């Protein structure tokens, strides 16, 4: 059976262009009622134009779907609340929240102003938190919600000139890692998409031979899947680019375990680096304590 979103209400932030536009078009084409949120500014977040969100709303309606516009910035708490209110006012509920809005203010860290650092974090990190915070009580109350945040390889592996952006993109991973636990019993799933696509944000950054293959619409099926009722993934990161899909996961190595009853020297750490860093022994990092409990038990230090 096809994946459908009939009777579901969705918000896609930053849906006026690039990836967000494709996410909104796909969700609407499968029956979702969509709030197309976008203040319509430039890549660095300056300026604004209502026509940007309006054009996507018109596109959805022309194709027979249902959509309303929201021109609010996610970067201010009261305005983010108004985006959620727009959905509830239009259709009386909210089932799906895709936090996609984004800006760039790239500079080498040495030259980056704290203003640019804060601004980028305000849009990506706080813009996500403000929307999730406003959606959360609604989703809890109805015991249903699908939340997708947008992370980036820039945070996971780092990218020169993007300290502000990379940090903000990792912050949203931390958010879903916690919310997956808190939302589980309310059937709220929180996952992340780590996209790579040719948009105005990346047009000057991508190699010319690969760029044309990285169509934003090739990312949206993964986002829509994570928004579906069928999806039981929770706290996962899916990477999507150019038709390729993969899971991003932290691993931890077997490492070494010294007896905590004895002192540990700097040299003991230095001399064990081979084992500490040996990725061939790595396993998915799934618990707060890693494998320390097992090891201390083996050593007889705990029962
Ligand atoms: P884009 O510039 O085409 O789209 C971003 C949209 O967000 C724009 O329409 C913009 O107006 C909107 N926006 C900006 N500030 C906003 C705010 N305060 N409130 C609401 N909307 C706002 O860029 P894109 O490539 O489509 O990026 C979409 C998301 O994907 C971003 O979060 C971006 O960081 C992330 N991302 C993109 C790539 C990529 O390769 N394109 C890679 C990793 C992550």
UniProtKB/TrEMBL annotation:
Keywords: Oxidoreductase. It comes from Rhodopila globiformis (Rhodopseudomonas globiformis). Belongs to the short-chain dehydrogenases/reductases (SDR) family. GO terms for molecular function: oxidoreductase activity. PANTHER family: DEHYDROGENASES, SHORT CHAIN, SCP2 DOMAIN-CONTAINING PROTEIN. Pfam families: adh_short. This is Ketoreductase domain-containing protein. It comes from the Bacteria. Residues 8-196 form the Ketoreductase domain. InterPro entries: KR_dom, NAD(P)-bd_dom_sf, Peroxisomal_Beta-Oxidation, Sc_DH/Rdtase_CS, SDR_fam.
């Amino acid at each position: 059976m096809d994946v459908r979103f009939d009777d579901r209400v969705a918000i896609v932030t930053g849906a006026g262009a690039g990836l967000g536009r494709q996410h909104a078009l796909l969700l609407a084409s499968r029956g979702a009622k969509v709030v197309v949120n976008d203040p319509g500014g430039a890549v660095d977040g300056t300026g604004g134009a209502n026509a940007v969100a309006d054009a996507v709303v018109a596109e959805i309606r022309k194709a027979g779907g249902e959509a309303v516009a929201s021109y609010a910035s996610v970067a201010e708490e009261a305005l983010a609340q108004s985006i959620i209110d727009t959905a509830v006012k239009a259709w009386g509920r909210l089932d799906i929240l895709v936090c996609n809005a984004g800006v760039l203010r790239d500079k080498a860290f040495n030259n980056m102003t704290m203003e640019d650092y804060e601004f980028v974090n305000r849009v990506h990190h706080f813009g996500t938190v403000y929307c999730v915070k406003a959606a959360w009580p609604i989703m809890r109350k109805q015991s249903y919600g699908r939340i997708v945040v947008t992370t980036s390889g820039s945070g996971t592996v780092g990218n020169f000139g993007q300290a502000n952006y990379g940090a903000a993109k990792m912050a949203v991973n931390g958010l879903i890692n916690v919310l997956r636990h808190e939302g589980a019993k309310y059937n709220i799933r929180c996952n992340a998409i780590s996209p790579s696509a040719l948009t105005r944000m990346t047009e000057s950054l991508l190699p010319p031979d690969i760029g044309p293959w990285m169509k934003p619409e090739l990312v949206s099926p993964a986002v829509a899947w994570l928004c579906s009722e069928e999806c039981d993934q929770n706290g996962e990161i899916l990477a999507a680019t150019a038709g390729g899909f993969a899971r991003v996961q932290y691993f931890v190595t077997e490492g070494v375990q010294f007896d905590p009853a004895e002192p540990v020297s700097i040299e003991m750490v230095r001399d064990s680096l081979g084992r500490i860093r040996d990725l061939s022994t790595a396993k998915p990092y799934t618990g707060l304590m890693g494998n320390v409990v097992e090891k201390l038990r083996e050593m007889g230090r705990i029962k």
